[in-house]
Amino acid sequence: MNLRHDYPTASPSVQLLWTLMLILICACTTTILSAGLMACSGIPPEELLSFNTPRATAWLKGLQAVQSAGIFVGPVLMLMLFSGGRAAVPGLYVRVPLGKICLILAMMLCLLPVINLAAAWNEGLKLPDALSQAESWMRQKEDAAQALTNAFLNTGKVGGFIINVVVICALAAIGEEWLFRGVLQPVFIRLFRSPAWGIVMTGLLFSAIHLQFYGFFPRWFLGILFGWIAWRTRSVWAAVWAHFVNNFAAVLTAAMIHAGRWPEHADRFGSAAGERSIALMLAVTAVLMLWFVIQKPVEKEVDIRPTESV
């Protein structure tokens, strides 16, 4: 199969197979590159994995940037290079009006208390006793991921904050949205012959790939939200902006808590019983903003049939 000529008109299953193959190639290449960089760092593995020294944290941030670019951005660029650009990721070429961008940013800020509430609920879920070993394993993985996150976010320097914005906010938002909403979601929509199912299943994969059970459902909700925004606006960049502001809020909140300017509970605002009425009001406001974002329907419905090559 010639990727350049056949991908745009291929069946969704073949497109998915090609995409997964490119992801696998990029993931393997990125893993080898990351291992080489770790060896070149000169930092003992036990120090690198302890997350408690400045140089270890700096190298881990660099590795995070490499992995985000390689695993998420890499497959999209390869697909665009070998299949003709626009035909592979048409949503990258649709601009979002400034007014809608502002609404998206405000909407995501209003949704933060609801997301925190959902996260608190998800963290309290208990598996049946028969799955206690699996639950213990998931808890260990969650604790390790949280330790790494805290090492990244707890910085009192302006330079560290800027690096977090670039790596955790911008690069993660661009890479993940390009791949999930730009490439995989259109394929899943055609595969399931339904925009709704395509968006839900892409969101499910988006949450599952993070390997964090105790944040699974809030992240799935966000994946569905990003997917719906991208589909209704026909632009991947609308989802990128929504993803960016969600991550930026976490980075900013952590920095302000670390600096002692905000209370320690700020990153969980909305989860306490006395804050849920505020979370509900903000959620209603967010829904109204979302309505204005997507009130203009797409000019052309998603075609579940293969498109003709140009």
Which key features would you list for this structure?
73% helix; 11 helices; disordered C terminus; mainly alpha; 310 residues; single chain
**Apparent shape:** globular
Rounded to an integer, what's the Rg over CA atoms? Answer: 20 Å
| Poorly predicted parts | 297-310
The total of beta strands comes to 0
Elements, N to C (H/E): HHHHHHHHHHH
Query: Largest sheet, if any?
Result: none
Helix segment tally: 11
Mean pLDDT: 82
- Helix percent reads over 70%
Integer count of domains:
1
Spatial separation of the terminal alpha carbons? 17 Å
Going by helix content, strand content and strand pairing, the class is mainly alpha
Oligomer: single chain
- Portion in strands: under 5%
